[in-house]
Amino acid sequence: NLSASSSTLAYDREFLRTVPGLLMVTEIVLGLLVWTLIAGTEYFLYPAFGWVMFVAVFYWVLTVFFLIIYMTMTYTRIPQVPWTMVGLCFNGSAFVLYLIAAIVDASSVTKDLDSHNYNSWAATSFFAFVVTSCYAGNTYFSLISWRSRTLQ
């Protein structure tokens, strides 16, 4: 018996009004700013900026992916995945690696390297720390969500 079923994808408009949703949008916007500012320079000549670029692009892509999952409520269709644990691991790793990248970025910015890239690299350092704080906030909310799931 084959029955045709129409599969509609849900859309959660309220997610963007929550603090984790706002933090995620901020991570996407400022993360994009971090890697575009670096991409506009000769970052490939300096391994430290290559690391920052890798972290920024990697977590930007994954954050966009998770935003789509949360906005379309795909997590409700795949209950086998422990989404609270996945969110906690994702946000925790993003926080740690972005913090390392921001510190590496800030410590590598000098006028001696390449003066015409100085302003871009200094700006990426600032925005990398802002994105790091956003991931720290989302890690906190993910931890609260995970703890409430494990207590049930």
Automatic annotation (TrEMBL):
<dbReference type="GO" id="GO:0042552">
    <property type="term" value="P:myelination"/>
</dbReference>
<feature type="transmembrane region" description="Helical">
    <location>
        <begin position="21"/>
        <end position="38"/>
    </location>
</feature>
<keyword id="KW-0812">Transmembrane</keyword>
<feature type="domain" description="MARVEL">
    <location>
        <begin position="15"/>
        <end position="147"/>
    </location>
</feature>
<protein>
    <submittedName>
        <fullName>CKLF8 protein</fullName>
    </submittedName>
</protein>
<keyword id="KW-0472">Membrane</keyword>
<dbReference type="InterPro" id="IPR008253">
    <property type="entry name" value="Marvel"/>
</dbReference>
<feature type="transmembrane region" description="Helical">
    <location>
        <begin position="81"/>
        <end position="101"/>
    </location>
</feature>
<dbReference type="GO" id="GO:0019911">
    <property type="term" value="F:structural constituent of myelin sheath"/>
</dbReference>
<dbReference type="InterPro" id="IPR050578">
    <property type="entry name" value="MARVEL-CKLF_proteins"/>
</dbReference>
<keyword id="KW-1133">Transmembrane helix</keyword>
<dbReference type="InterPro" id="IPR013295">
    <property type="entry name" value="MAL"/>
</dbReference>
<feature type="transmembrane region" description="Helical">
    <location>
        <begin position="44"/>
        <end position="69"/>
    </location>
</feature>
<feature type="transmembrane region" description="Helical">
    <location>
        <begin position="121"/>
        <end position="143"/>
    </location>
</feature>
<dbReference type="GO" id="GO:0016020">
    <property type="term" value="C:membrane"/>
</dbReference>
<dbReference type="Pfam" id="PF01284">
    <property type="entry name" value="MARVEL"/>
</dbReference>
